[in-house]
């Protein structure tokens, strides 16, 4: 079971599972996000990696708001800063992992993978090691499978990797990084080049010494 957003990180996680010989069940959440185009990327990746099943589940988080990705708020374009950015979606990974947990239990899967990364987005509380440990503990006391001793393992292989290391891993796995989508503020199916996600994506390829396959509306800055 892999949470597949359509981004580079989730693509690499799915690629690692495939390399390990695991069958892939991919779950993508359509939460009416500003960067809705990432759903197309998720479908491309699931198809390319031969997912046994790809579920795109609608969940309209614009009804909650509270984020530049789910409300009429500007996406930051000034560069990656300190603190929790306005692109944080309240409890997003908790919500998404809870859905993945329900699907995993219903389909007898016991391994759940997600591409959270603590180094480049340590400002996001739901990408930190403490969150990962807490969610796995919760999963095994909140489910029939868990309390009966057939528990779940939450896999976060990218948790302590830099974006450059993730870009290199994509290349090692033979993945086409151009299929993935990172930008929070798409411009006519181009990455904007200025949001935090674009800056970090481009920085990763540059530091990895790899060509960036991304089409940007504006050249990314540091």
Task: Describe the fold and architecture.
Helices cover 34% and strands 9% of the residues. With 222 residues, it is an alpha/beta fold. It has one domain (2-176): Rossmann fold. Helix 2 links the parallel strand 2 and strand 3 (53-58). Helix 1 packs across helix 6 and helix 6 crosses helix 7. It starts with a strand and ends in a 14-residue tail after the last helix. The relative contact order is 0.17. The mean pLDDT is 95.
Q: TL;DR?
A:
With 222 residues, the protein is an alpha/beta fold. Helix content is 34%, strand content 9%. The strands form 2 sheets. It has a 3-stranded parallel β-sheet, with helices on both faces. A two-stranded parallel ribbon has the order 4-5.
Fold topology:
Elements: E1 2-3, H1 8-19, E2 25-30, H2 38-48, E3 53-58, H3 92-106, E4 111-113, H4 129-139, H5 144-147, E5 153-155, H6 163-172, H7 196-208
Parallel strand pairs: 1-2, 2-3, 4-5
Helix pairs in contact: 1-6, 6-7
């Amino acid at each position: 079971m892999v949470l597949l957003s359509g981004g580079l990180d989730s693509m690499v996680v799915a690629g690692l599972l495939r390399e390990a010989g695991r069958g892939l069940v991919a779950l993508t959440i359509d939460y009416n996000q500003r960067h809705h185009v990432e759903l197309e990327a998720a479908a491309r990746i699931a198809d390319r990696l031969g997912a046994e099943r790809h579920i795109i589940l609608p969940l309209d988080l614009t009804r909650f708001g509270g984020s530049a990705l789910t409300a009429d708020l500007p996406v930051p374009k000034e560069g990656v800063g300190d603190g929790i950015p306005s692109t944080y979606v309240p409890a997003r990974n908790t919500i998404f992992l809870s859905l993945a947990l329900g699907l995993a239990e219903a389909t007898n899967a016991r391994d759940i993978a997600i591409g959270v990364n603590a180094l480049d987005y340590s400002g996001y509380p739901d990408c930190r090691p403490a969150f990962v440990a807490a969610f796995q503990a919760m999963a095994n006391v909140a489910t029939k499978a868990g309390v009966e001793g057939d528990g779940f393992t939450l896999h976060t292989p990218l948790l302590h990797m830099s974006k450059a290391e993730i870009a290199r891993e994509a290349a090692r796995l033979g993945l086409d990084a151009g299929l993935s989508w990172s930008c929070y503020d798409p411009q006519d199916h181009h990455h904007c080049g200025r949001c935090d996600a674009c800056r970090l994506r481009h920085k990763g390829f540059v530091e990895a010494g790899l060509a960036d396959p991304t089409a940007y509306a504006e050249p990314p800055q540091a």
